[in-house]
Structure formats: structure tokens, C-alpha cells
Model the fold of this input.
Amino acid sequence: MRLAFDRSGGRETAALLFLKILFSFLLIATASAETIDRKSVWRIRFVPEASPRVLVTAPSSASLRPLRRVHWTPEQWQSLLSVHAEQGELTIDISLPPMAGEYRVEGDTLLFLPRFPFAPGVTYRATFHPSLIPGSREGASVLIGETFRVERRSAAPTSVTRVYPSADELPENLLKFYVQFSAPMSRGHIYEHIHLLDEQRKPVELPFLEIDEELWDVEMKRLTLFIDPGRIKRGVRPLEEVGPALEQGKHYSLVIDRGWHDAQGNSLSNSYEKNFSVGPPDRSPPDPKQWQIAAPSLAEGKTRLEVRFPDPMDHALALRLIRVERVQTSRRTPAALEGTAKLDDNERHWSFTPSQPWQRGTYQLVVPAIIEDLAGNNIGKPFEVDLFDTIQKRPTNAVTRLSFEVR
Amino acid sequence: MKRMQLALGTVLVAGALATSSALAAHWTEGMKEGKAEFKSMGPLAFGPEGILFVADTKAAAVVALATGDTKTAEAKAVKVEGINQKLAGILGTTADQILIDDMAVNPISHQTYLAVSRGRGPEAMPVLMRVKTDGTIEAVALEKMKFSRAELPDAPVDGVVGQGQRQSNPRRESITDVAFLEDRVMIAGLSNEEFASTLRAIPFPFKTVANGTSVEIYHGAHGRFETRAPVRTFVPFKVGNEAQLLAAYTCTPLVQFSVNALKPGAKLKGKTIAELGNRNRPIDMVVYHKDGKDFLLLANSSRGIMKIETDDIEKTGSIEAPVPDGGKKGLHYETIENWKGVSQLDLLDSTHALVLHQNEGGPLTLESLPLP
Done:
């Protein structure tokens, strides 16, 4: 469509100019809905596909020819054709720079190749001033506009599927939660949507370690939420000033509110709540020698290796770190068996089914010392090392190996 | 981003310049020209000769970009209101889809570099943006830039290899801070699984295989309990001729230790010189020189900006006993009340800081402010 203003009235006041710009925006905003009734005029078309483009086609191939010879700065090209992402507020929109991109002239078409793709849910506005083409006979007031919008893909609503630890009672010095979502989430300002409420449904003040980096997995479906270590570690000021985030004997709710947007920009399907009580702090390092191993048995057709922990283990670390190796008679370095591991019974039961059948012989359960329980205690090393307590072992990077026989 | 101000004293300046000119020729050694690929852009830090270190957390790597931005220019006062909206305009999206993950000023040209995320989900595009001294903003073209890359040793891979459904390793190590000191890139990391501190020192120029040294850093609070708590942010500075690191821990103590003590596999114990206390989240630190003294400026989520004399750091003894409520044992600091809502801090020049700030209801603003 074509918009024309009469500039013959001489010097415009700022207010008038603003009104004109406003008017032009309003007209442009409706441009896509109007029928283009003059086939011979300039036309703007958005192409959102793999290599996004904005095309301006000329009334004749000669119209754009002068542009092939110009050596313009990016600003000059942007004066000729600009593409803006609308912010939804006119006063902001008129002051923003246009999209970055490359300009080309091919035949009777002027192309704008945006450096960044068109994003779903955003309205784009192209504005073309044909009078700026050298030698153009178009009036200076002629303005061609077009708008375009990529609609958001509709997707099933995202929800919180699980929060670890699973148990209903957690230690006072709990170190972290893992929040698992059904689909990728969005980052930025996430802590506004995570609340720890006490028994009176009053928010606990700043219970979490809030860091800008936000601890996501690659898919952004799992968030790691550390309790502020200053509220756990003895002898530091936050704990002395305001006490622990979680207090023994009390009940709490971890609430993920539905206002949080997923990666598609949609709110969660519903809020999620994990209710739990708080038990005594756990300052004892996990000891694999206390673990009960139920070995698979060829004779009984039992294909699953099962390991029972006396206390729950950290979900992510237990699943990632514990491995099984076959004890080799040769000098070859043993490789971890491939298979499927599971963790259930409130993270106290680990089981493993290998992809290849077990063979008679000796295997080992290999447990790196950096595995953690719910309070961040490692094997042989508590979360905090008490320097006055000489009985405690010093840190180690070793692994613990527990042998079992498959018969 | 945090950077050591070279004007820490005449001796230091001379030393730094001598080092710089002797090494200038080889800083780009081993770099290749092309387009450095990024999965994400996180903490930024300038090194010598316009080389920008960009941490890519998703790829577990640090990329050194020879920006070519080496033309000396005076710093100018900067104020860009609504910078997130302006970035959105250039990147063709809406302001709510823009996250500024870090900011660094090139000490040579005084142009500002921003690590920007276009989008907030896993498909977000990382973009390096530049704010020129006149306040105009542009996307930095990476296509023909020289770069080199140091891959960080990723997760301890125990148990990951081929274990059925565990093939997709959800562990990631976020890079929380990067700094350049003499000939090393220092990198602080925080894992999304195990709770531990890793600080790596990687020699620069990067070798083909970057086997940085990783150390465990402990801090003792009140001399009794010690943990390997993660470091949130750190800044290199010098006491006399000795390079030091000042690290702010996630559990709020400020801890000092000597860079020379960073040896492979070392177990390092730092000196706790201050405790920020509850509701404090250290964001960024810079060191500067004013009125014959060296100062540390620390941006903090709750206390605004804290100004600390670095001479005091040397004199302060380690905090070995609990500080009673309201007590002022440890390092003395001054709170700069009128700097509010600061989310990024760097030095613009020897007299000005550059901050990204947003007051309640106000626009996100990039602004230069006189150093306090």
C-alpha cells in the first residue's frame, strides 16, 4: 500500500510531526489487512523460511537500477528500507534502531537479508522510502509499509513433572533441589517464580542461591536449585544472622508458580507444590560399605543388579556416577558396562540392567567419592570439614569398589 | 566482568607495559581466522591487544577473540537508556527476549562489549554486541575474526560413557567468572550437580590441548569449618609485587589468596578478610586507583556498591572468630548509597565506572559514573 503526506505546508512542528508518524504507524499497522489494489506499485513481501528475507519489488526493473551503483553506508540503506520489530508500545517503537542485516539488489527486487531470523510472536514492520533512490521521481512523502508476524507454534502446556529429592522428610542441611519440567523452559528472572513457604504459607526469605547463570541442563528441562550455602554452613554470617532456610521439625512447601514461561513463551499448565517436613541435619558422609548389594543371578534368571542405600542419595549424581565394571583377568582397562540405571524408593534404591546379558564371574560397583547425599556430604568427606575433629578423614578423589559375583 | 586496573602503581604499570610489549607479537599465536562458533556467551574479560575472552558455558569452552579493536581512543561519557529495547530492535525481537549476560570495556578503545542472549530458551542465539563511545550499538561481526579456543575438561566422565539412558549427560559447569592476568586466563566454575569449587588457570596463548590447572580452594570461616564452596566472582589485584586473587564465595565470605599458590592439584586455603552476610550476592568486582590509593569496588545485590581500600586487605588479618552482630571486624568498607540496581559493573577508564542498572520501574540503562 501507499501512504502519502503533503509536506508543502513548510516547517512542521514537532507535535505535528509526531502525529503524522503516529498516523503512518496506524496505517501501516493495518496495511496487511488491506487489499493492494494497484498492481503496478511497489510491493513488500516477507519471506520467513530458512533464509529469511524481505523483498521489495519495483514497478519496473529500471526503478532499482540506480541502486546497483551506490556505495551506501548501512545507515543510508536503512533510510531506504528499514525493518523494525515492534515492541508493542508506540513511544518505544519510534525510537528504536531497525534490524541489522544485509541489502542487495537483484533484478527488479531489493532484498533485505536480516542477520537474525524472524521470531515467533513478534510483529515486524517494513518501511520503504522510494524517493531516496537516486534519480527517483517519487514524491519525498511517499512511504510504503507492510507488517508481518510469525505466529507462535501451539504446543501442549508445559508442567513440572518431578522435584527431587522425592522424600517427604528432608534434612535441615538439604543442599539442593532438582526441578524437572516436561518441556524446555525459559531462563532469566526465574527466582520470581520459585517460592519456599513455611507452615503459615509465609515465604522464607531468600532461601536459594540466586545466580544469574541459572543452573540448567543442556535441554533446559532440569533446573538445579541450591539452597543458599550461607544458610547451611556453620560459622558464616547468614546462618548466624537469620538462621537456616529450613528448620528441623517444621513443614514447608516448595512452590513453582504457573507464571513462569516455557521456551515457547507460554505459562506452565499449573502451579506445582512439593510439601515436606524437615528432619535433623545430616553431617555423616555416605559409606558404600553400608550399601546392600543384591547381585543378579543367572541361575534364578534375575537380570537386575540392585543396590540399597541406608539414606537417600543425590538423584543426579547417583544416576550419573555409579557404574559397573567386569573384573578382567587380562590387563585391559575395564570399561563401564552399558545398560539402564534407575533410582527409586526416594533415591534409596539403585538398580541396573545391562544391555548385554551378565556373564558368570566377578563384577564391581564403582562409586566415585564425589557422589553426594542430600546434604552434600561426599564419600569420606562431610560437606563441612571440622578442623577440630581429628577423626574425620581428609578429602580424597578416589573411587570405592564393591565386588559382587554373578553366578 | 572484572579487570585489574593497570595503574596500580608506577612499578606495576612499568611492569605491565614491559610484559605487554614483549608479548604483543605472540598473543595471537596459534589463532585461526574464521567464524568462532558459540553455543552461549557468558562472562567476558579483555586481555592484551584487544583480545576478548568469551566464556561459552554450553560448550564448556573459553574463546579468545582478536577483536581488532586496537585503536586508542579516549573514553566518553555514556548513557544509553532502555538498552535492552535498543538491542531488541537491532536483533529483531522483543525486549523481554533479551538477556545481557555480561559486559566488558575494551581498555584501549573504550568501546563496550555485551554478551547478549537473543531468546531465553535452549534455542537462544548468543550475540556479541558493541556500544561505541558515541552510544550507538552494533552487532560485532565474527566472520573474519582471529580466534583460539580452550575446551575445558568437562564433567568427570565416570559412569557416563555408554550407560544406556545416561548417554545424554545433564551435567553442566557454568562459568561464573573469567579474568586475564599476565599470561593466564582464570576461570571460575559452578556445576549444576556437585557442589565444589573449581578455579582453573589456563596459559594464554592457548596451546592445542589446553590442560589448565584446576585447584580446590577452601575457605575457613572462623577458623573452624572449611568447605570447597564455589566462587561466585573474583578479581585479580596486586599487593606490592605479588599477584593476588580476591574471591567472593557463594556463602558470602570474601577470601584472598596468592596467585602463585595456584599449582596443579593444589589444595589452597584462602584468607577470609570480610563477610558480606545475609542477603548479599556479589555480582562484579573492579580495582582502581584514586587519590594515591587503590580501591576495590564490589557490586552487590543487597548492599549496593561497596568500596574497599586494598591497602586494608593486606593489613587485615584473617577472620578467625565469629563477628558479633553489628561488629565491624575484618575489612572496613564504605557503601555507595546512590548506586542502585546495578547488575553489571566494569571500569570505563581511570576515573569512571560503567554500570548497567535499573531502578524500580525504570528503563535498563548503561551509564558511566564517576568512580567514588
Notes: Chain B touches chain A through 85 residues (CB under 8 Å). Residues 4-22, 155-167, 324-328 of chain B have pLDDT under 50 and may be disordered.
